[in-house]
Amino acid sequence: MLSERRLEVLRAIVQDYVGTEEPVGSKALTERHRLGVSPATVRNDMAALEEEGYIAQPHTSAGRIPTDKGYRLFVDRLAGVKPLSTPERRAIHNFLDGAVDLDDVVARTVRLLAQLTRQVAVVQYPSLTRSTVRHVELLSLAPARVMLVLITDTGRVEQRMVDCPAPVGENALADLRARLNSRVVGRRFADVPQLVQDLPESFEKDDRGTVSTVLSVLLETLVEETEERLMIGGTANLTRFGHDFPLVIRPVLEALEEQVVLLKLLGEAKDSEMTVRIGHENAHEGLNSTSVVAVGYGSGGEAVAKLGVVGPTRMDYPGTMGAVRAVARYVGQILAES
């Protein structure tokens, strides 16, 4: 275990390196921080930290920089989540408040996270495997053509055209709408097939073909929409950190293009807990020079999806964690109220 003083020295090194982008020397540390000890003592502490693998000496520089292990200890032991300022909270409120639908919420969230953190923002759409049905609407477009509208508890709206085997009257359509909603509203998507499997049998023989056709389209919609989707933004922010990537930035960009990679990264975040993956903790080789900060968001205390940011390991962890958490909470409120 490191002594409290050496932990303070490590904290100071991380803060200075993140702020200045320059390797940190013992003289600079004693000038910038009230460590209460001489530069010689700080040099000894830095030597111990280097021996333990928490800091390293890049090239021939006299200064030291944190390693992945050093950042890990900083995040676990030393970094509190920085609360957002009142103007920042107001900006989140104003930016997200005008969203008109779920696509708009996700798009605005991506832009906002990228702006607040100056990193790459990744937002997963609410997973329909965890969603419930809020309402199913059936609208007559022509004698034998119906529009099916599926509305979820997370504000997602899906529309499908249904070509029925015979003309459908308004009364019959209203009856089907009422019976269908009585079975599926408030129920999870995964439960719907079982809940409606015997519904056609409860109708007159002449109407069963239409009921079965409508149900078939509904179930197809549920299956199609359980596919995971996400949105990414702020990739251009990485160009500000060219010197933070030891080789070239291309492997990072290639990894960010792989949706499967990003979904896996977000999937490692526990539902409502903040997850920070640093450097080589990221399984994908292209992201070994990055850190990922992610958390779940949702309504009613249950996460329906994840959001987060990807940036260089030389990251303002307290500020980034604070922004990610605040945005996740606000998006959850929007979903709960939508």
Sheet with most strands: 5 strands, antiparallel
What portion of residues belong to β-strands?
Answer: 15-25%
The rough form would be described as elongated
Specify the helix fraction band.
40-55%
Q: What's the helix count? A: 12
In round numbers, the mean pLDDT is 85
Number of strands: 10
Measured between the Cα atoms of the first and last residue, the distance is 49 Å
Please specify the SSE layout and strand pairing.
Elements: H1 4-20, H2 26-32, H3 39-51, E1 55-56, E2 65-66, H4 68-78, H5 86-97, H6 102-117, E3 120-124, E4 133-142, E5 145-152, E6 157-163, H7 170-184, H8 192-196, H9 208-225, E7 230-233, H10 250-257, H11 259-267, E8 275-278, E9 290-297, E10 305-312, H12 317-337
Antiparallel strand pairs: 1-2, 3-7, 3-10, 4-5, 5-6, 8-9, 9-10
Helix pairs in contact: 1-3, 1-4, 2-3, 5-6, 5-12, 6-12
Notes on the structure:
Helix content is 45%, strand content 17%. It contains twelve helices and ten strands. It has helices at 4-20, 26-32, 39-51, 68-78, 86-97, 102-117, 170-184, 192-196, 208-225, 250-257, 259-267, 317-337, and strands at residues 55-56, 65-66, 120-124, 133-142, 145-152, 157-163, 230-233, 275-278, 290-297, 305-312. A five-stranded antiparallel sheet has the order 7-3-10-9-8, sandwiched between helices. It is elongated and about 90 Å long. The model has no long low-confidence stretch (mean pLDDT 85).
